[in-house]
Design brief:
- There is one protein chain.
- The protein is of the alpha+beta class.
- The protein has one domain.
- A hairpin with a 2-residue loop joins strand 2 and strand 3.
Length: 105
């Protein structure tokens, strides 16, 4: 989904998605994505990797969204192409879109 690709948002807003049920995806102390599970699969919002722990990135620093994708439950290893929002029910799609749009207010 290219709707949000390349848009800038604050690092603090990215990790703030945790209040909405999202989980951080981290490697070596750096956050590289946020994930929210749905009955239809997982939505992943990938960003430029950043670290709030070591002070490399501040909560107000602007980071680009690299990609947003939905993977089906049977596609955990990325072997199939990602789903689109049309694969979701209207309420789930609306909630996820609102979560992502909250990054850019």
């Amino acid at each position: 989904m290219i709707r949000w690709q390349g848009r800038l948002c604050q690092a603090g807003r990215i990790v703030g998605l945790e209040r909405r049920g999202w989980q951080r995806l981290e490697e070596s102390g750096s956050v590289y994505a946020m994930r929210k599970s749905t009955p239809y699969g997982d939505l992943e919002l990938e960003t430029e990797p950043f670290s709030l722990i070591y002070g490399e990135t501040g909560y107000g620093d602007q980071l680009p969204v690299e990609s947003v994708k939905i993977t089906s439950p049977d596609n955990r290893y990325g072997k199939q192409s990602s789903l689109t929002f049309s694969a979701l029910d209207d309420i789930t799609a609306s909630e996820l879109i609102n979560d992502i749009e909250s990054l850019f207010d």
